[in-house]
Amino acid sequence: MSSTRINTYDPLAFTSRFMPVEEMKALAGNFFVLPVEDMYKHLARPVPAIRATSHSLLYITEGEANMGVGNNNYTIGTNQMLVVAAGQVFSFAPGDINKGYICNFNDSLLTGKFGSAELLHSFEFLKIWGNPLIKPDAETGRYIYQLFKRLVAEYSKNKLSNIDVLQPYLLSLLTEINRAYTPLLTQGNTRPNSLVNKFKELVFTYFRTHKLVTDYAAMLHISANHLNKIIRNATQKSPSVWIDEAIIAEARVLLIQTTLSISEIAHSIGLDDPSYFTRLFKRYEGVTPSAYRAIDKC
Fold this sequence. Notes:
This protein starts with 7 loop residues before the first strand and ends with a helix. It is 49% helix and 17% strand. The chain contains 13 helices and ten strands. By secondary structure, it is α+β, with helices and mostly antiparallel strands. The strands form two sheets. The chain has a five-stranded mixed sheet. A five-stranded antiparallel sheet has the order 2-9-4-7-10. The chain has helices spanning 11-18, 22-25, 36-40, 117-122, 138-158, 163-180, 190-206, 213-219, 224-235, 239-257, 262-268, 274-285, 289-297; strands at 8-9, 31-35, 47-52, 55-63, 65-69, 72-76, 80-84, 89-92, 98-105, 133-134. α10 packs across α12.
């Protein structure tokens, strides 16, 4: 049987598969930063829907970039950014004409000498359920641009030999991004918003094995009615819709990326009844899983 999970790559595996040149392989590690045009020129093939073990920042200074992140496709332009949190599904293709910067790093760069686990937790955009689209104002954009330039200058000269220099610049960059960040949640009381974030994190972690709203209410030590009210008020969607959408998002990627049968995909996302999976998929996508796969191949 083929793999029943979306392929996950660390930086070395990613560069080896999609940018198989020594110049790019040398970047693999817990951090790299470079002009985005340097990455595109080495991109050997489209990147299908995959996951990475590290975080990525794509910042555009000229032109446009197109990328799929999670359930959505994004087009960003000048002074805009996409964040791909570790574990998030993403995809993109060669051919975009643009300039800017790409930065890839793992959590260890944020919790070392100058960082902390608490600081890492404060950056919601590095959560799989965060808003990946960042639109800084002009002033913040200038700071972000200068910090990218400084990171590239340091990294291109010394690579990772001066982590004590790289880490503060990276933390400053993330802090400026945080200034420009707009949460997906509506504004309001921070306690309900915190509960919603915990719920979303649990859903992305456990949707294969936990399908009921009562499951998540129990994990959060609240009643199902209270969870339903909080989630609806904050996101305009019910908890059950969030669970279904996580299931469907995984199924879409498996349909495109693998040759698994419909029954195998249903089983891999925790649905033992392929007929129910087909009905659920059609309810959200408007077509059956088989038709969705056929459309993508056209």
